[in-house]
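Worked problem 6 (solution included).
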Amino acid sequence: MSSAPVRQVSSLFKIGRWSAVAAGLSYGFFHARTLRSEAAARHTESEYARKVALIEEAKKKFAESKPTDGSVKFNFDDPNFDADKWAKHLESQFK
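Solution. The predicted structure is:
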């Protein structure tokens, strides 16, 4: 059984192959870094938008809790309930 003769690979071909590998690794490194920074920026923006939405929701709830027509709403279940304000309100209504 005769073995096939070993072919010599051109030096230019070896250099080209290793250059392509190095270029691919470099491209992958820089592309991944760019994607990572864009993802971080998107995350920061979404966190900011979430906080703004929470603030808007809190403002809306606060506006709902404030009386707009001059009437006063009292929450008797609130631990900070002020009975004196409630009594003064009742007095002012029946005068």
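Discussion: The chain has one domain: 12-93.
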